[in-house]
Specification:
The first copy, chain A, is α+β, with helices and mostly antiparallel strands. Chain A has helices at about 5-20, 30-35, 40-50; strands at about 55-60, 65-70, 80-85, 100-105, 115-120, 135-140, 150-155, 160-165, 170-175, 185, 195-205. Chain A binds a DNA duplex through helix 3.
Chain lengths: ~210, ~210
DNA sequence: AATAGTACTGAATATATGTACAGTATAATA
DNA sequence: TATTATACTGTACATATATTCAGTACTATT
């Protein structure tokens, strides 16, 4: 599923709200009325973009033939116990039993992607990304990392949560979201970088 | 609710099946095709009968403007489905059905306190508190508010998420967590301040 | 500099759709 | 017996609706 723009999100929300309110999807004109567009083609182009990106399907020729594609509803509502692992300044967030602080019962399809454990955040190096001390990051163990992903990285025995940014085949920058911290530049030829996984969600209890 | 005839039941079932299959209601012609009628008026008269008996509602003039009226409104009290409500700049986040964007299955004891619904955040006025755009705030409907709590407040029809700070019996300050925004000072003698509830947790999908 | 994506306005049009009107027929009800 | 509800066919038409075409403008990427 590709990225959605803010305007496309507005249109998608508008469709969902309209369906909840009336029981049937809106026309192009209805969307224009709700969002203040003056041409039905404004709605049309957004709908086509949403269709292209896989958020909705459009029945050709049919009036109000819009349906929202829900990709986390088809998966069953199975709940599971997920471990909560503490991120210590010098320590590895493995699933070793001694690192499991407690568990949280949570539906398997809770986030947009499956995940493996919760990581309890220490420090404020990602505060500008809305990740605060003691927040729980839902971590998916994967090596499928793209630039801009929030990753759980280990260098030697140091574990950290940062933005991932591959500068060149051999250089990776781990970027904090806090002006008080500096980028960590990793030269893969000299240092070993292990990516534990990436963040697919966040949970905060207050 | 009056009695339903067998043919009307067939039509009602047809509508439900069509909605389940496509996501939107059928046209008169669609019903004819499904049930073997040869005139759209056959469907029309059945629809009018179903409407008269209260099984469906028909939006006049609108294509596919059929919606099935659900009489078994048992909002299953001990269910784990929590509604997600959009926070619109000028609009109230009530539990009115038209504002419910979707629901999230979640254990009742998920946060440290019980809660009533999720609120989808718009804007960045609380970014320094780690609340970002499109985050879902778990809202507990309560009037038990202490200074420093993150509250969902309504002034006139403006709804906002801010820190709560009672300065004096008559003065309440609503404080953002973003240097680009200013405190909202509410004189309770002059303005009406309604506290929808407070944040007891946060959920982010990325 | 060229291309592609987003975000719109505005006009035009083929057709999809609701809906009225004219019939026929059967069964139940007042 | 007259009336009403059910259960259809068939035709017709105004309009609701999807959809295309022609523009403008901004932004990001190549």
């Amino acid at each position: 599923m590709k990225e959605i723009t803010s305007q496309q999100q507005r249109v998608l929300d508008c469709i969902q709200i309209y369906i909840n309110k009336t029981g049937f999807p809106p026309t192009r004109a209805d969307i224009c009325k709700e969002l203040g567009f003056k041409s039905p083609n404004s709605a049309e182009t957004h709908l086509r973009a949403l269709e292209k990106k896989g958020f909705i399907s459009i029945e050709s020729g049919a009036s109000r033939g819009i349906s929202i594609i829900n990709n986390d509803r088809n998966s069953s509502i199975n709940s599971d116990e997920y471990p909560v692992i503490g991120l210590v300044a010098a320590g590895s967030p493995t699933l070793a039993e001694e690192n499991i602080m407690n568990t949280i019962n949570c539906p398997e399809s809770f986030f947009n992607s499956s995940f493996d454990y919760f990581l309890k955040v220490k420090g404020l190096s990602m505060k500008n990304a809305g990740i605060m001390e003691d927040d729980l990051i839902a971590v998916k163990k994967t090596s499928d990392i793209k630039n801009g992903d929030i990753v759980i990285a280990r260098i030697d025995d140091e574990v950290t949560v940062k933005f991932f940014n591959r500068k060149s085949p051999k250089i990776v920058e781990l970027e904090p979201a806090n002006e008080d911290f500096e980028n960590i530049v990793v030269n893969l030829e000299q240092e070993e970088l292990h990516i534990e996984g990436k963040s697919v969600g966040l949970l905060r209890k207050n």
